[in-house]
Specification:
Layout lengths: L35 E5 L2 H4 L7 H9 L2 E4 L7 H5 L2 H8 L3 E5 L11 E3 L7 E4 L1 H6 L11 H11 L1 H26 L3 E7 L20 H7 L5 E6 L2 H6 L11 H5 L4 H18 L1
Parallel strand pairs: 1-2, 1-3, 3-6, 6-7
Antiparallel strand pairs: 4-5
Helix pairs in contact: 2-11, 6-7
Amino acid sequence: MSVHGGGLATLEYYPCRYGNSRVQFRGPKRSLEGRFIAFLGSTETYGRFIEAPFPHLLEQRLGVVCVNFGVVNAGVDLYLNDPSVLDSVMQARAKVVQVMGAQNMSNRYYAVHPRRNDRFLRASERLEELYPEVDFTEFHFVRHMLGKLLEVSPERFANVVDELRQAWIARMKNILTQIRGKVILLWFSECPVPEEDVFDLGHDPLFVTRDMIDTLRPRVSDVVVQVASDMARLEGTMGMVYSDLESCAAAELQGPLAHAEAANRLEPLLQKMI
């Protein structure tokens, strides 16, 4: 039995695959025949610890199949490196693309795991030359590595962030060009879109600014900036399903009310598109 807010709670995600993809998505598996809406994104779109994430809520409200292609800790590369998924997404009547952080992508400074994008694989010679005093063999996760680089030298860290931002813009333009059609770009976070450079590793999506999003506006049908309300933030983990061992991870994510608020914003826009 599932228990809300700790204990021995478990949530069944019904992992499934689409086409020839090696990536496991949240199920139950949906049919890709006929009308459907595709949702691409990271942990929030996937709906970790959430029984009914916003794609599920929208499926109930709109009466149209909503396929959740969200993946925990996904970066843009996950989709660009998976032509099978992109082929499926292109067939959707409408697409919602969550703004994903710029850190979980391979770039000229470091490489990440192709499917578990938060996993750090190796540093390039360029990064080793920029940070000769850092032993990169001690890192397994991207955020941990970035935190160390920021601590060692904020000045040099700015070079890394600049590379990540340039790579993010280029790849977002690439993916939006490929999936075509009616696309909503969704900022879904507890924090507003930063107006300027902020090297804060505590809030997602990392390193994405308003200027970066504005650059993509000509390539999408609409941009939705959904920041959780005060009430949603105050609810914390209320209504989430997780075990005691997962309590810290759950506390970093948005809860059911935030997902309902996102669905409220997206519903009228998608209604016009389908």
